[in-house]
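Sample pair:
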Amino acid sequence: MAVLGISRFERFFRAASGVDVDKNDLRRYHEFLDAKLYDLLLIGQARAKANGRDIIEPFDLPITKGLQECIHRFRRLDEEIEVEPILELLARRPPLDIAVRDVTDERLPEIAGGLSYALAQTFRIVFPDRRNPQTTQWERVQRMFDLLL
């Protein structure tokens, strides 16, 4: 990721929750984002197949009320920081058994933004006194997301 992208993500996490991230955290963040988008798409694939379709529609993705609210908060925050163009590059779609409708694919950067906002908020809630999360905090937060998504 280019230096400009790194500084935008640092600003994003700071603005979203007061958490400071560095280059090492961005690798962890990228792994988190890949895993959670894959999880959402796997469930979307299962829903599409269960309904006899061979293409994933936006409504197949398991977007909860909380994640939807985080997507809306991300949009408001992103107007100022402009992270979404970078998320378009990061929100890669993994290979699946069925196709993904274009409109679903186009939503992935916003969903990634909502996940990012939720991640930043989770650090603040679980570790209110920790400004710069370390490996242990990243692992704990990842396990929480694995339980919920």
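The longest strand covers residues 55-56.
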